[in-house]
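1st attempt posting a full record on here, be nice pls
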Amino acid sequence: IINHYKLAGQKEKQAKAIKGLEENKKQHRYIKIQSKVPIKNPRQVDDLINEQIEALLADESDIFIYRLCFDSEALLFPPNEKIKNYVNKQVEQQITQQFLGSVLVDINNNTTSVSSEDLGMHQYYQIFLQNHTLPFLTELLKRALDKRKLNYSKLRKALRKSAFGIPFEDTRCGGKIEYSWFSLIDIGIQEFLKQFLKEINQKPADWRFSVEFLSLKFEAILRDIIQFAGGEVTSVRENGDTELLLLDKLLDSVVIKEVFNEDDVFLFRHTFTKIGLNIRNNVAHGLYKPSDYTLSKAFPVFLSVLRLNKVTRYLVNKDALLK
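the predicted structure (as tokens):
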């Protein structure tokens, strides 16, 4: 409005509006989620991280790969419960949150109202991933590749021995087709490792295929898992037509808790939905530009796909399909 008064030559109204704006600024209050952790001895922290990496690499290749799939804590992912408790305490100290809401703005400038607690948790999670988890995992995978604990062949072999290798049948045009979950992700996994090697060797890496391909296959496998566990993957409209549930709704499924824990589902939400990185939506609607495809996006997608392999434990516990 100040600009409009300026264009109209209304100097008195312009001055009054500017004065009102400056007075209003004094009343502004902002949410501040503290994420700093005092480090008394940085060298000791580095030593502990190095010990953790070497401990993980001491396992056989299969065990190391299954840890990538199952072991959230060993990979330095922040526990959901601790984030929740910490952020809730921070929000409680912000008295203005009794009167103000929080708004998300996506890559296309669309806005969505969210709770301060949810927003704070995902902001904290992202900061932790960027500062701790992803650097740790980058070094871990680098050493694993150097020591030949990990490569595409070994990853393929290990995943094929798990639920990802189970043959399934589907119907297409009256005929039957066979596939496995690994067959859905194979070239995406291979491309991720290829680009990762380029990245750590300081060569130009192109993450477009890895991010787009694996994001869509994540949803495909998750849909299979929920359906296999007895959950709903479609909804019925008022006119009787059916449609596939969106990813947000799939992650709300009751049966998903039988397969994955809160830490797993939080990783999935943060990676793919609008409360976090929103990668699934941005990929599906073609919103990313070439510079948007980075290792910091490819890594959570890659790890989310591997985390789906937790369904192996579910199937073993249910004595289904696996011997």
